[in-house]
Design a protein that fits this description.
The chain is built from four helices and three strands, in the order αββααβα. By secondary structure, it is mostly helical. Helix 1 runs antiparallel to helix 2 and helix 3 packs antiparallel against helix 4.
Length: 237
């Protein structure tokens, strides 16, 4: 009976784990910072909504101006999608730290970055499009764009997760090219070695048991029986 010998994989390495945690923190911080800058870009790109003052502190939207609220939201979502794709692809280039820890940093950075992009973008937009406290009647007032609804914040982390999943599926190595066989710093186990049998090779080739070595036990020799007449021996008288 053949016995398979397996090697136990390496355990958790604290130094490798801490390196991955630091890398994830760097990626998370970078994504949040870039998203904040993207919020400034959104504040300049998002269109304003113009209202006509019909009464004191009351106004009505001009024809077609209410569509700009959707335009501002769509621009915000598109910027989040671009950041999710580019940010994940850039973080994936950090080959040595690929794994679940880096993915956590990407997702947290994308979610926090989307929230900060909304806050910074709306604050900058308020500064760019200030309106008077008590506008005059029949005047046109610009309302600063805003991101309505929190569902728009899911676009960036959702796209980041999808891109990370695709990159993981396209990887040709089990360790994603990081050099670490197991997550959280586990090292690659040594190759398993099969000990040779004392009775010879356990490999069989077709109908011939015992393989190429004949050192194992053989079948007992069975004498064969000769059929037919036995020739008489010559006798001398």
């Amino acid at each position: 009976m053949a016995t398979t010998l397996t090697a136990e994989p390496g355990g958790l390495r604290v130094d490798v784990l801490m390196r991955e945690v630091r890398a994830a923190a760097v990626v998370c911080t970078a994504l949040v910072a870039v998203s904040a800058l993207a919020g400034v870009v959104w504040a300049f790109l998002a269109p304003t909504e113009q209202l006509l003052v019909v009464e004191t502190d009351r106004g009505t939207a001009l024809t077609g101006e209410s569509m700009h609220r959707f335009d501002a939201l769509a621009i915000f979502v598109l910027i989040g999608i671009v950041l999710g794709v580019l940010g994940t692809a850039a973080a994936w280039r950090w080959r040595r730290v690929r794994g679940p820890v880096l993915l956590s940093g990407i997702l947290l950075g994308s979610l926090g970055g989307a929230f900060l992009m909304k806050v910074v973008g709306e604050a900058i937009a308020e500064q760019l499009h200030t309106r008077p406290q008590h506008p005059a009647l029949h005047s046109i007032v610009d309302f600063a764009p805003a991101v309505e609804g929190w569902a728009a914040l899911i676009a960036q982390p959702l796209v980041a997760a999808v891109v990370a999943l695709l990159l993981t599926a396209l990887s040709t190595s089990d360790d994603l090219g990081s050099g670490q066989f197991l997550p959280f710093g586990g090292s690659r186990p040594d190759p398993a070695v099969l000990a040779g049998s004392q009775y010879g090779s356990a490999i069989t080739y077709g109908p011939y048991p015992g393989g190429g070595q004949a050192s194992g036990p053989r079948d007992p020799v069975v004498p064969f029986e000769v059929r037919g007449p036995v020739p008489e021996s010559d006798t001398t008288g």
